[in-house]
Amino acid sequence: MSNVEGARRRARPRPGRLTLGFLSFLWPGLGHAALRRRQAALVLAIPTLIVVLVWFALWLTRGATGFAISLLSPSFAWALMASFLIIGAWRLVAVADAARQGEAPTPERRRLTSVGLGALVVGILIPHGVGAYVAWSAYDTWSAVYTPTPVTSADGSSPPVDSLAPGASGGPSLGPVETPSPSGRFTVLITGIDSSATRAHALNDTLIIASIDPTTGKAAMVSFPRDLAGFQLYDGGRYSDKINSLMGWSQRNPKRYPDGGLATIARETGFLLGIPVPYYASIDLQGFSRMIDAVGGVTVDNPKPIDDPNYGGWTDKRPIGFHLTAGLHTLDGQTALAYARSRKGVGDSDFTRARRQQQLLVALGKKLTDPTMLGRLPAVLDAAKQTIRTNVPPDLLPTLLTLGQSVQDNRIQGFVLGPPYAQRASNTSTYALVLDEDRIHRLSVSLFGADSRFATAAGG
Fold first, then answer.
1. Residue 25 half-sphere exposure, CB side, CA atoms within 13 Å?
2. How many CB atoms lie under 10 A from the CB of residue 245?
3. Confidence band (pLDDT; 50, 70, 90) for 159?
4. Structure confidence at residue 276 (pLDDT)
5. pLDDT above 70 for 165
6. The pLDDT of residue 157
7. Cβ distance 421 to 434 under 8 Å?
8. Cα separation, 279 vs 183, whole angstroms
9. The pLDDT of residue 301 is above 80
10. CA 411 to the chain's CA centroid
11. 323: helix, coil or strand?
């Protein structure tokens, strides 16, 4: 009976090579199933199914944006890249082996079969290659973003700093600057660094402490004017120059500040505001416009007209001057940079532009957490690699994303430490601001409660 059955099976015409290859293209093992080779079909189908289900479950639990943010974790990016490459190779093997066992084409169909099988190979190589490339780009971005940026000295030289190569452990400047608040509050210093070719050293033209309370869902953004001077240093003494030069000065004094410039400015601004600032994120202002363009522009509600006839920060040959009416505007990268930097229009100052900078960061955050950004991921990753340096751990980014999405606009408190929190210094011929420490202490307690180091003194 078995011999008869075997003869019947041998007598059945086998599907063609293109047909079997196409079935295994749809899913590894389907071509072998059509040949009734059940064991081979299961061996080819089950591993692919397991891998796809694991990644699909991660996609469902984290969402599209959370999944994309997770790519900044090097282990996550490597695993995804390996999955694309291995499953791609597995599919090629399945297609080739199934097609090999198919009925040979007639002479007049050989060309069609060859072209069809070639198309199936291309149909596997392209999506898997693109997926692996995106995953690699995420890993490459991580390697760049988590590498400290050297600060150019006044003589044009760059002091040596530790570099974080892929897989290597970083120095102290890459860990948390301070112990995070016990309450779980997330606090980060966001600094915009102007290191353009016209300057001999880098300056922090933007200094914003952003803090989110995970319990209440409230967020605070506090901007430090770049002209603050004569303030107390966290390690003793006072700094007579302006705060926007402190990062470069500390970088040039590594014996006193071994953690580097970014860690020092994060610790100092946190010391002045009375809140631990464990993390920092620096943004190169010249590359900021690239990030805005990468997300397709940002929408802001300009509170009052801007008329700055002397703005000359354009890099795309626009005429000198920046003008913007009040109301809603979608800004491209160059216009967003002008919005963040312009300060010489009627009624404008460092304080008004600091408020606009906060506004831009909120708008950019909204865009980055929009699921539609997934299609722009390669461009966003490339812009981030050129623009951002941070010590925020990759594994913390999904949590930060969740916190950011939970904060509503009306729950964000924005402050600029100009008057009345700082007044113009009377003992210097240059324009400088001196902090009103009592006001700062009260502001700190009102914003951060028990997380403020001034809370005990205020309570006593």
1. 18
2. 17
3. very low
4. 94
5. no
6. 39
7. no
8. 16
9. yes
10. 23
11. strand
- Domain ranges, residue 71: 10-145
- At 313 the pLDDT is 80
CA–CA distances in Å: residue 330 to residues 42, 80, 265, 295: 53, 34, 32, 12
Element (H, E) at 206: strand 203-212
* Residue 87 within any structural domain of the chain: yes
3-class state of residue 342 by DSSP: coil
Show the tokens assigned to 321: 């001057």
Q: What is the pTM of this model?
A: 0.77
What single DSSP character describes residue 303?
S
List alpha helices for 146-260, DSSP H. Answer: 246-251
Is residue 204 domain-shared with residue 109, that is, in the same domain? no
Higher pLDDT, 167 or 452: 452
Same domain, 180 and 300: yes
Amino acid at 147: T
Inter-residue contact 32 to 102 (CB < 8 Å): no
Helix (H, G, I), strand (E, B) or coil at 217: coil
Last-in-domain residue among 145, 163, 184:
145
Could you read off the pLDDT of 100-144 as tens digits, one per residue? 999 988 888 899 999 999 999 999 999 999 999 989 988 888 778
Query: b/e string for 53-67 if b means 16 or more Cβ within 10 A?
Result: eebeebeeebbebbb
280 inside domain:
yes
Q: Are residues 112 and 184 in the same domain?
A: no
Provide the pairing of β-strand 229-232 with 238-242: antiparallel
The CATH number covering residue 236 comes to 3.40.630.190
∠ CA 309-315-321, nearest 5°, is 5
**Which secondary structure element, helix H or strand E, spans residue 241, and what is its range?**
strand 238-242
Q: Is residue 159 part of a domain?
A: no
Number of separate domains in the chain: 2
